């Protein structure tokens, strides 16, 4: 049966891949985006599809539609973007999520909230498990995003308990791949663009901090599995690749894969930057049968190819 599915933030990096996959499965897809960080270029090839509808809208404003499922991905996700207008960022996670939950309640739709590993803050538990409540600075520069996403999870659970809304919560760890914005400001895109331009690669801190990087196709598979699971499992569940590496190792790998002449330079570490980040995906394996399949080198090669094409198109 064809489903009518709403994807907020659907013109963004992850949202555009999700829209395409859902269309490939034969669904009607409504893409909602205010284009603050999303781009029409990401979904331009979908516009001729009769089952795809693009609407410019900000979820902090009410929205009405008849839909079967809602994937709520709308929110700037990189520090430069979410810190640009911190008040708007937290409104997106509070007012925006409330609006989407109200829509889910009116439509009797299932709603999936794209939460984040940032709800764990600078973790003192490693790897991070879903039962860990986190170590977050509530008044720092990152708190508009970290605490906003934590509040969004609270709203999801309260609407579920109080109004029987059918919810899903996923905590997304570092994800990369084609359709990332050149000016995204996150580490993979920064390093690749700098390497392709033979510019200095900027590492904040000494590079010993660790991250785990998940290729976007693996994440999309996890999101859809979570939405479609019928086991009354609502999460939260971690979705990420547990293969952990230092930022310095990532920089060296990207230099090697791009045959770049870039040199590594070091700058002061931003405040509240996590020292470790690695998901425990035991729950995702058990409940969803999900494990990431794309290795870091394979994923980086595809991402480098994407950025190389984008950079060559720039004036």
What does this structure look like?
It is a single chain. With 315 residues, the protein is an alpha/beta fold. The protein has helices at 13-24, 40-43, 79-84, 86-107, 143-163, 187-196, 216-228, 247-258, 282-288, 296-313, and strands at 4-8, 28-33, 52-56, 69-72, 110-116, 167-172, 175-176, 201-204, 210-212, 214-215, 237-239, 244-246, 264-267. The chain has a seven-stranded parallel sheet with strand order 3-2-1-4-5-6-11, with helices on both faces. Helix 1 (13-24) crosses helix 7 (216-228), helix 6 runs parallel beside helix 8 and helix 8 crosses helix 10 (296-313). It is globular and about 55 Å long.
Helices, strands, pairings?
Layout: E1 4-8, H1 13-24, E2 28-33, H2 40-43, E3 52-56, E4 69-72, H3 79-84, H4 86-107, E5 110-116, H5 143-163, E6 167-172, E7 175-176, H6 187-196, E8 201-204, E9 210-212, E10 214-215, H7 216-228, E11 237-239, E12 244-246, H8 247-258, E13 264-267, H9 282-288, H10 296-313
Helix pairs in contact: 1-7, 4-5, 6-8, 6-10, 8-10
Concise synopsis of the structure shown:
This protein is α/β, with parallel strands linked by helices and 315 residues long. It contains 10 helices and 13 strands. Strand 1 (4-8), helix 1 (13-24) and strand 2 form a beta-alpha-beta unit.
Alpha plus pi helix count: 10
* SS content category: alpha/beta
Q: What is the helix fraction of residues, given as a range?
A: 25-40%
Strand order of the largest sheet: 3-2-1-4-5-6-11
Mean pLDDT: 93
User: Describe the biggest sheet?
Assistant: 7 strands, parallel
**How many distinct beta strands?**
13
- Specify Rg, calculated over alpha carbons: 19 Å
Q: Oligomerization state of this entry?
A: single chain
Q: Give the H and E element order.
A: EHEHEEHHEHEEHEEEHEEHEHH
- Weakly predicted, low-confidence segments: none
Shape, principal axes of CA atoms: globular
Termini Cα gap: 46 Å
- Note the beta-strand portion: 15-25%
């Amino acid at each position: 049966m064809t489903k009518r599915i709403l994807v907020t933030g659907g013109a963004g990096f992850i949202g555009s891949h999700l829209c395409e996959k859902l269309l490939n499965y034969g669904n009607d897809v409504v893409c909602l985006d205010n284009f603050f960080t999303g781009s029409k270029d990401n979904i331009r090839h979908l516009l001729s599809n009769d089952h795809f509808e693009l609407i410019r809208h900000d979820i902090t404003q009410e929205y009405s539609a008849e839909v079967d499922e809602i994937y709520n991905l709308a929110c700037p996700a990189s520090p430069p973007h979410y810190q640009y207008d911190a008040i708007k960022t937290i409104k997106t996670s509070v007012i925006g999520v409330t609006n989407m939950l109200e829509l889910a309640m009116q439509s009797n739709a299932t709603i999936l909230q794209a939460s984040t590993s940032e709800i764990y803050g600078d973790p003192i538990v490693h790897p991070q498990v879903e039962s860990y409540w986190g170590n977050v600075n509530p008044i720092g520069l990152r708190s508009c995003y970290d605490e906003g996403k934590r509040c969004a999870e609270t709203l999801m659970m309260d609407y579920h308990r109080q109004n029987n809304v059918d919810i899903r919560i996923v905590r997304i760890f570092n994800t990369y791949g084609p359709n990332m914005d050149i000016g995204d400001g996150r580490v993979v895109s920064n390093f690749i663009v700098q390497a392709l331009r033979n510019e200095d690669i900027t590492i904040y801190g000494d590079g010993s901090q660790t991250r785990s990087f998940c290729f976007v196709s693996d994440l999309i598979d996890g999101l859809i599995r979570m939405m479609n699971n019928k086991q009354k499992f609502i999460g939260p569940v971690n979705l990420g690749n547990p293969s952990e590496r230092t930022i310095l190792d990532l920089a060296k790998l990207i230099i090697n894969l791009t045959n770049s002449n870039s040199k590594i330079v070091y700058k002061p570490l931003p405040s509240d930057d996590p020292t470790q980040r690695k998901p425990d995906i035991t729950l995702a394996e058990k409940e969803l049968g999900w494990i990431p399949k794309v290795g870091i080198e394979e994923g980086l090669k595809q991402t480098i190819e994407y950025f190389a094409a984008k950079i060559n198109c720039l004036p």
